[in-house]
Amino acid sequence: MKQKRIVLYAYMLMMSGCMRPLPYQVEQAEKSSLKIEEQRYHMGAQTLTLLEKNFFEEAEVVYYAENEMELAKIIQHSFDSGITKVAYQSEEPLDMESVAQILCVVNPFNIVLKQYDVAYKDLNEHTLYTSHHIELQCMDERYETAQRIVKERLSHMDDTLSINEKIQWIHDDIIKHSAYQENIQESIDENAPYFQASGVLLDGRGVCSGYSRAFMMMAQEADIPALYVSSEQMNHGWNYVYDGSSWRYIDVTWDDPLPDQGMIAQDTFLWMSEQDFLNEGSHQLRPEEQEIIKQIAKAFFSF
Hints:
Blueprint: H1 2-15, E1 31-35, E2 47-51, E3 63-64, H2 68-80, E4 85-89, H3 96-106, E5 111-121, E6 127-138, H4 143-154, H5 163-176, E7 179-180, H6 197-203, E8 205-206, H7 208-221, E9 226-231, E10 236-242, E11 247-250, H8 274-278, H9 287-300
Parallel strand pairs: 3-4, 7-8
Antiparallel strand pairs: 1-2, 2-3, 4-6, 5-6, 9-10, 10-11
Helix pairs in contact: 2-3, 4-6, 5-7, 6-7
């Protein structure tokens, strides 16, 4: 119906002797800046680009994305603002799989992005405008419940602790309240509880991705920048954390003894330098994977 209405309106303009709507040119559209609040966890004080609202677009806000990283930032800002639907334009087609991969590094849950496009055409089937819309879905059904648990557990952490002390407190808290789930079948769905932050925080059991995502949830609530690192070579995940002066890798999973020893938490992979972590620590991360994680850290955190 919307396409019909637009086509009919274009026809009426032609019949009255007026010029019909011309195709909308993204590269020629006026742009403006949206500044993100300084106190935001992601991208504080950074700016995103908005496009003028054209004749055809029905969304209230339209973003401009130059590349996949910029679109990921747009979606992240929207999600942080409680918005799960985004309208955007770009001069070149963008790869949604790459955008989703970036967002899965930034967020402690699996993400599904659904893009749908609406093309408006004139009576000669010439495209006047194509509207790009994205819906974001968190695949962890118990994520909100896990968030409440995170707030409750962090209420017991001393606010006067230094950033490094808070990182260790969260690291130890996860280990003391969790046990590594062994003998996971390879065919199991990656959205199963063991792989999620909620599995570790609510059930007390999980694998490396669950441990790492639980750490991310608690770190974010404590305002500590943290990302999820995944090594394709090792089929293993851990965290990239900012301690107030530099970024470093930590592995909560490998610091949880096997078999489980209850309230005992090791710190072997908590204080290592990046060089030691990737060499002596036996963690394998290809140079291109290292570069990508550093690019994402720079893009989503403002320091």
